[in-house]
Design a protein that fits this description.
Chain A: InterPro entries: AP3_complex_dsu, AP3D_dom_metazoa, ARM-like, ARM-type_fold, Clathrin/coatomer_adapt-like_N, Mu_AP3. Chain A: Belongs to the adaptor complexes large subunit family. The structure holds two protein chains of two kinds. By secondary structure, chain A is α+β, with helices and mostly antiparallel strands. Among the domains of chain A are: 1-94; 637-655 and 683-793, no CATH class; 942-947 and 996-1140, Immunoglobulin-like, CATH 2.60.40; 1149-1264, TATA-Binding Protein (2-Layer Sandwich). Chain A contains 51 helices and 14 strands. Chain A has a five-stranded antiparallel sheet with strand order 1-2-3-7-5. In chain A, a hairpin with a 3-residue loop joins strand 1 and strand 2. In chain A, helix 6 packs parallel to helix 8 and helix 29 (513-520) runs antiparallel to helix 30 (530-551). Chain A is elongated, with a radius of gyration of 47 Å. Chain B is α+β, with helices and mostly antiparallel strands. Chain B has five helices and seven strands. Chain B has helices at residues 25-40, 83-101, 106-111, 113-123, 134-151, and strands at residues 2-9, 14-19, 49-50, 62-68, 71-77, 124-125, 128-129. Classes of the chains: A alpha+beta, B alpha+beta. At the A-B interface, helix 1, helix 3, helix 5, helix 7 and helix 9 of A face strand 2, helix 1, strand 3, helix 2 and helix 4 of B.
Chain lengths: 1269, 162
């Protein structure tokens, strides 16, 4: 371990080390990480950055670095660009939403976003796009939106992209800034437009309706742009929009058709085709020509897609198939034309392509080609041999064939194409059963459940092949590959469940029931799944019941023997294999069966049958014991048919039955038996075919019998019985296996009541045949009904006969169908989210159709400074401190001196006049300002910290008086400090120094009492002037302003109402990128004026506004004045301009020589020009007075300049603004047509030269508005 | 949206991992492994698209990749991206790397992994395509490189190749 920074491992060392220590990489890295921990602990920024870089590299290899997140932020805040980048990369790679230090990054990112360097902004944006949290998104949204107008396109496009991520975290931001985002669609830079399209495309996927209004703009881009990347996005965007605006289709078809026919870019071509398909444009069924063109387009698309599929490039083949899959539902005939090539793709060595081809095949299957397709698919499951249609020489492809996932998929597809639309494609079910049993054996993957369901479904539904089904099932039962599999994982033993059940249910079709009984009780059964075992048991007793019943008709010694043998065999089998099963269901069934078999065995004569009437003429057969027929009616009273999927739903609710009401109060402790009963029912999840219901219903009814026997009490009251009956009926309502309950037709209702009575009345004491058969009726009642119906309706035998689906007789044909339709037609909503998907649910809720209200705006960004501004600001403070110290030394006589200088050291912008006029109040406000600059170093705060005070005019005077001294010394200082500066600069400062040195300074009259707004109650006037804080720190000519200028506005509010007081007066300024509240109001939303103004009273409030925008003519401040009068809140909107002349400084008069020197020497700087004309009032005659009045007004009042030289009929003037803009101008009389010297001068012309164009233009406009009488 | 950009070599060693939705590091590694296992089995003759993976989940997630010599460049995207477009984009990314590093090879990516991230950031930001013009990308990367050089002296100064 090396603690010396110079020898610490660099990233490259680390990488080399890892490569050299391949064998003990873990140990090496562990040591490195402990070194990194030490490096991070040291206070060396270089080491820290390097450590984070190393950690980030290790993070890629799977080593956690979340513990270092604080250090990551430290490195992020490094002033060095490279380190900053390392820090941001570390954050991007390791931060999560939960990383707590993210809270610390807000201001850091704010600062980086405000950087003047595009690269720096770039890493901040890229970093932000990864680490955004809802808080960061909300806090930075306004900043980012403002940056949409950034001068560099590279910044604009990045901002656009990150805004999407912002909206994901802060969906409210979308509505508030969408119009700004939309504007970027018209950006001059194509990359920026592309980024905007990209983001809108993503947004539109979530909620397309919001973006329909953009269609015209997008359409224009579609037809004019040649950027393929963007075109793809636009086209994808339209695909999302067209379903919501069908009229778009018509408009889009021509340009898209053109693109399809002309574009050489395969990607664009493909997307066009894809959009045409997925946007539903081909399905147009409008006017004739429209439909025709749509059909033509479809044909073109399919033809183009064929070229994709014929392309040797596998990628094109793949997406060609993908697109065909999508076109299939609407234009199957077009796809069918290309069956040849699609079938070829099924055998493609590339599994992705094969899967897509399979998708297509599934859609293409029909009655005619089904067997061919299935054969082809099955061939994929067989081990490669000579029959293989294509060469499978590719090793990996063969491996893929063996991939269980692939095999399972193939089998699923085979089953799907056969079973879809209720087996519409299958004409020969014997063939299908053969396919299914083939699949059972070749699967090599566990698809037992699927195949089982298919067997059961076919067996139950297709009457005509039932006997064949039973044959097949017998074969399966005998198949040792299933009963004693080598590899139980992949054996489809679950099909045995179907085999057992079908054999049991349709045992009348068996050739040899004895055989079946043997198979069902064979030893190997013990290893099967409990569910299969349970079915085996149930089937066993069913087959046995059938077989025993049949013995009645030929009862002789032989049959007696075989009965005894069989009973013994079964008892043995049951006891051996099942009765100790850990599975409760199996155990219970086996016990039941065991008891039943015992009873039967008791009733079968033990002794050989005597041939009784051997002597008589007509030898009669011995009378069979009655027990032989006792079991049969339990199971075979009627045929079992499939239940229609909606049968349960269609059971109408009987009148007067409130399913939500308690029938009786819930019993605190439910009877253990009944609850067990319910649990058992609930356990069985699948009842689609009614097969598990059979066993369950039977078992249940048996239990019922037991239960009723147990509780049966002759004294039980009729009420209790009725109560129980109701209870049961309620239970039956919710019983999934109980189908035909509670019907409304009087007949069936009566019948069901009868049934209930029956059941309740049965005192089952012994297991007699009668009792048994009656009790079982409970479970079968509905079937009885349906059987009757079926008999009357059953169609004449046909080649394929389907069993009728069971439905309640009085099914309501209304609601449920609609319901299911509704479900289908809903917009594709929630999709399963992958681990890399964003949560976009909130974005879907944003409705852009609601206009953004006046009072809605992005959360106010805290004012901040750019890093270099911050640095400049610091420099300035330091400089001022020095000046102040020098001054303090000069004025040493003053006793309070030291105190003052100390305070001014800390006090950034506050002038000394504050120190002079000491009041308690001032002190406190000074203390406040004292703190602020400190914050300014950490977190950005407004530049102008001094708040305007009510004594403003006085303080202005003070400033003006002191200014020469200060500015002078400052200029001197500047000159000194920039001694290495170029000559031009020194010259400039000389001029300004000269200008300042001149003795006469005339303060300009301030603009005051300008009418702002008034209504019946309130009148507002305002004063406007450069804020004192700004006056103090003017910018010298030629250099850049260090801060934003501030103007102070004094609102003077007058309550005009004679009787009523106005209360709660406040001003809210509209959001603007030009102006921001500064001074004491910085960061506030509204400016309180006064809580109450008496009738005829007045109130004033001073506000400092930071001017962020370029100074120009139109620079306006808008806002609203709110006040309450008569208990109502009233509002007055106002707006006023900030004239450029506000920024003109009062300065010493230049002499003519100085003036011309400035102009000649700095001619290049005076590049901006502005001119204006002023109309003099009519009727003025010969005297020069009006002209001089005008000049006076223009210079002193309007432009705040001063006259330099005067010649006859003309005057030159000069001035300088706070920003350092110098203005030189000439006023002259335009000679009228009459031409008489000194005659009627109607117009005077003003021409100005300046160092800033928009500024001088603004001044010119101001002059143009002057009226001179 | 592009959900992830991965570069790994023929042995599955990651050379760049970028996830545009934060996920924990264990899942990242498992995902890389899974995708590598899926992709490395595929011969170069087959198509460059994979339909998601078990871990990725989600609907319409696709894995689009290209294989260059020793390196796999993998983009995980959803359905809003064009398959062929992403293939082109991978090409753009690789060509940009090639221009910035002058004949890029795996070692460049290893020793300048931050720069690779920087270049990627000029192609894709926040899971969306930022720029497809190689010249623009290279200029942006070089600008940043110059700034890094200008502002850095000391330990890491010589590290940036641009």
């Amino acid at each position: 371990m090396n603690m010396n920074g110079l020898f610490a491992h660099s990233l490259a060392d680390l990488i080399r080390g890892i490569r050299q220590n391949k064998k003990n990489e873990q140990a090496y890295i562990a040591k490195e990480i402990s070194d990194i921990r030490l490096e991070l602990r040291r206070n060396d920024p270089d080491l820290k950055a390097q450590a984070i870089a190393k950690l980030t590299y290790l993070q890629m290899m799977g080593y956690d670095m979340s513990w270092a997140s604080f250090h990551v932020v430290e490195v992020m805040s490094s002033p060095k660009f490279l380190y900053k980048g390392i820090g941001y990369l570390g954050a991007v790679q390791s931060f999560s939403q939960e990383t707590d230090v993210l809270m610390l990054t807000t201001n850091l990112i704010k600062k980086d976003l405000a950087s003047s360097n595009a690269s720096e902004i770039g890493i901040a944006i890229n970093g932000l796009s990864h680490i955004l949290t809802p808080d960061l998104a909300r806090d930075l949204c306004a900043d980012l939106v403002a940056m949409l107008n950034h001068s560099r396109p590279i910044v604009r496009k990045k901002v656009i992209l990150v805004l999407y991520k912002v909206f994901l975290k802060y969906p409210e931001g979308l509505r508030l800034s969408f119009s700004r985002l939309k504007d970027r669609l018209d950006d001059p830079d194509p990359s920026v437009v592309s980024a905007a399209v990209n983001v809108i495309c993503e947004l539109a996927r979530k909620n397309p309706k919001n973006y329909l209004s953009l269609a015209p703009q997008l359409f224009k881009l579609l037809t004019t742009s040649s950027n393929n990347w963007m075109l793809i996005k636009i086209i994808k965007l339209f695909a999302a929009l067209t379903p919501f605006e069908p009229r778009l289709t018509k408009k889009l078809l021509p340009p898209i058709t053109t693109l399809i026919q002309t574009t050489p870019a395969m990607s664009l071509l493909y997307e066009c085709i894809h959009t045409v398909i997925s946007g539903g444009m081909l399905a147009t069924t409008g006017s004739g020509s429209n439909a025709e063109s749509a059909n033509n387009l479809a044909a073109t698309c399919v033809t183009k897609l064929r070229t994709f599929m014929e392309d040797p490039d596998q990628n094109l083949k793949y997406i060609g198939l993908l697109a065909l899959t999508k076109i299939l539902p609407t234009h199957p005939h077009l796809v069918a034309d290309h069956k040849d090539i699609i079938l070829k793709c099924i055998d493609d060595p590339d599994i992705s392509i094969r899967m897509r081809a399979l998708d297509l095949i599934v859609g293409m299957a029909n009655k005619k080609n089904l067997t061919e397709i299935v054969k082809r698919l099955i061939s994929h499951l067989l081990p490669a041999n000579d029959d293989e249609p294509t060469s499978m020489d590719d090793g990996s492809a063969v491996a893929a064939l063996m991939d269980p996932v692939y095999r399972a998929d193939i089998i699923r597809r085979i089953v799907l194409i056969c079973s879809q639309n209720s087996y519409a494609n299958v004409t020969n079910f014997e063939w299908y059963l053969a396919v299914l049993s083939d699949l059972t054996n070749v699967a090599g993957v566990n698809v037992g459940n699927l195949l089982m369901q298919q067997f059961m479904d076919v067996g139950v539904r297709v009457k005509s092949v039932r006997s064949y089904t039973v044959q097949v099932m017998m074969r399966l039962l005998a198949d040792t590959r299933l009963t004693e599999p080598d590899n139980p994982e992949n054996a489809n033993s679950m099909v045995l469940l179907a085999a057992a059940w079908l054999t049991g249910e349709y045992c009348s079709l068996l050739e040899s029931p004895e055989n079946a009984l043997e198979l069902l009780s064979q030893k190997s059964t013990a290893k099967l799944d409990p569910a299969v075992q349970a079915t085996y048991l149930q089937s066993m007793i069913k087959v046995f019941a059938y077989w025993m019943n049949s013995l009645q008709y030929a009862w002789n010694e032989e049959s007696r023997l075989s009965l005894v043998e069989t009973v013994d065999m079964l008892r043995e089998g049951v006891n051996e294999m099942f009765s100790r099963s850990p599975d409760l269901e199996v155990q219970e069934r086996s016990s039941n069966i065991s008891v039943i078999l015992g009873i039967i065995s008791d009733h079968v004569p033990k002794t050989p049958l005597k041939i009784e009437n051997s002597i008589s003429f007509a030898p009669t057969m011995p009378k069979p014991p009655s027990i032989l027929g006792s079991l049969y009616p339990l199971f075979f009273n009627q045929e079992l048919n499939p239940v229609a999927p909606k049968a349960q739903k269609k059971v109408p609710v009987p009148e007067g039955l409130d399913l939500d009401a308690w029938i009786h109060e819930p019993i605190p402790e439910p009877e253990p038996e009944s609850s067990e009963d319910d649990d058992f029912l609930n356990e069985k999840g699948s009842y689609g075919y009614g097969w598990s219901g059979e066993g369950a219903a039977a078992g249940k009814s048996k239990k019922k019998g037991k239960k009723s026997r147990d509780v049966e009490d002759p004294k039980e009251s009729a009420e209790a019985r009725a109560k129980r009956k109701e209870e049961r009926r309620e239970r039956q309502k919710h019983d999934p296996y109980y189908i035909g309950g509670g019907s409304t037709t009087p007949k069936s209702q009566k019948k069901s009541q009868d049934d209930d009575e029956d059941v309740d009345a049965i005192p089952i004491v012994q297991l007699s045949m009668d009792g048994f058969s009656k009790s079982i009726v409970l479970g079968k009642k509905s079937k009885k009904k349906s059987k009757r119906r079926e008999r009357s309706r059953s169609p004449p035998p046909a080649p394929v006969e389907f069993a009728t689906e069971e439905m309640p007789e009085d099914a309501m044909l209304s609601a449920s169908d609609d319901e299911s339709k509704k479900k289908v037609s809903t917009v594709p909503g929630e999709k399963a989210r992958g681990i890399l998907d964003h949560d976009t649910s909130a974005l879907q809720l944003v409705d852009l159709s609601i206009p953004v209200g006046e009072d809605e705006h992005l959360p106010r960004a805290k004012p901040y400074m750019k890093p270099e501004e911050l640095r400049q600001h610091e420099d300035e403070l330091a400089q001022r401190r020095r000046i102040e110290e020098i001054q303090a030394k000069k004025d040493k006589k003053d006793k309070k001196e030291s105190k003052k200088s100390e305070s001014s050291k800390k006090d950034s912008a506050a002038g000394e006049e504050e120190a002079k006029t000491k009041t308690k109040k001032k002190k406190s406000s000074k203390e406040k300002t004292k703190e602020e600059p400190l914050i300014a170093l950490e977190t950005p705060v407004p530049v102008a910290v001094k708040s305007p005070t009510p004594e403003r005019p006085k303080s202005v005077e003070a400033v003006v008086e002191e200014k020469p001294v200060k500015t002078k010394s400052k200029a001197k200082k500047e000159k000194e400090s920039s001694s290495k500066g170029v000559e031009a600069k020194t010259k400039k400062s000389t001029t300004s120094k000269k200008a300042v040195k001149a003795p006469v300074i005339v303060p300009f009259p301030e603009r005051s009492n300008i009418e702002l707004v008034l209504d019946d109650n309130i009148a507002v006037t305002y004063d406007i002037a450069l804020a004192p804080s700004s006056i103090e720190s003017p910018t010298s000519a030629g250099s850049e302003p260090a801060t934003d200028p501030a103007v102070s506005i004094q609102f003077r509010v007058h309550n005009r109402n004679l009787t009523e007081s106005a209360s709660s007066l406040r001003v809210v300024l509209a959001d603007s990128f030009d102006v921001r509240l500064g001074g004491s109001h910085a960061g506030e939303d509204s400016i309180a004026i006064s809580s109450l103004i008496e009738p005829q009273g007045r109130a004033d409030v001073g506000v400092e506004l930071l001017i962020l925008g370029r100074i120009r003519y139109e620079l306006r401040v808008m806002g609203t004045l709110f006040y309450t009068i008569h208990g109502h809140e009233e509002s007055l909107e106002f707006s006023f301009g900030v004239p450029p002349s506000t920024f003109m400084l009062a300065m010493a008069r230049l002499t003519g020589a100085e003036f011309s020197k400035v102009l000649t020497e700095q001619l290049a700087q005076f590049s901006a020009t502005g001119s204006a004309t002023v109309q003099l009032a009519q009727g003025t005659t010969g005297q020069d007075e009006p002209f001089w009045d005008a000049v006076e007004k223009i210079t002193k009042e309007v432009t705040h300049t001063h006259v330099v030289e005067v010649v006859d009929g003309a005057a030159s003037f000069f001035g300088q603004s706070w920003q350092g803009y110098q203005v030189a101008g000439l006023v002259k009389v335009r000679k009228g047509g009459e031409g008489a010297e000194g005659g009627a001068c109607k117009t005077i012309e003003v021409e100005m030269k300046c160092t800033d164009q928009s500024f001088v233009e603004g001044l010119a406009r101001e002059i143009g508005e002057v009226e001179v009488y | 949206m592009i959900k992830s950009v991965l570069i790994f070599n023929n042995h599955g060693n990651p050379r760049l991992t970028k996830f545009y939705q934060p996920i924990d590091i264990a899942t990242q590694q498992a995902l890389i492994k899974e995708i590598f296992n899926l992709i490395s089995k595929r011969p170069d003759t087959v198509c460059n698209f994979l339909e998601g993976s078990q871990m990725l989940g989600g609907q319409d997630t696709r894995v689009i990749y290209r294989h260059y010599a020793t390196l796999y460049f993998v983009f995980v995207v959803d359905e809003s991206e064009s398959e062929l477009g992403i293939l082109d984009l991978i090409q753009v990314f690789v060509e940009s790397l090639d221009r910035c590093f002058e004949n890029v090879c795996e070692l460049d990516l290893i020793f300048h992994f931050k720069e690779v991230h920087d270049i990627l950031a000029e192609v894709v930001t926040g899971g969306m395509v930022l720029e497809t013009d190689i010249a623009e990308i290279v200029v942006a990367v070089q600008d940043a490189g110059k700034l890094a050089k200008k502002t850095t002296t000391g330990l890491l100064a010589q590290k940036s190749p641009f």
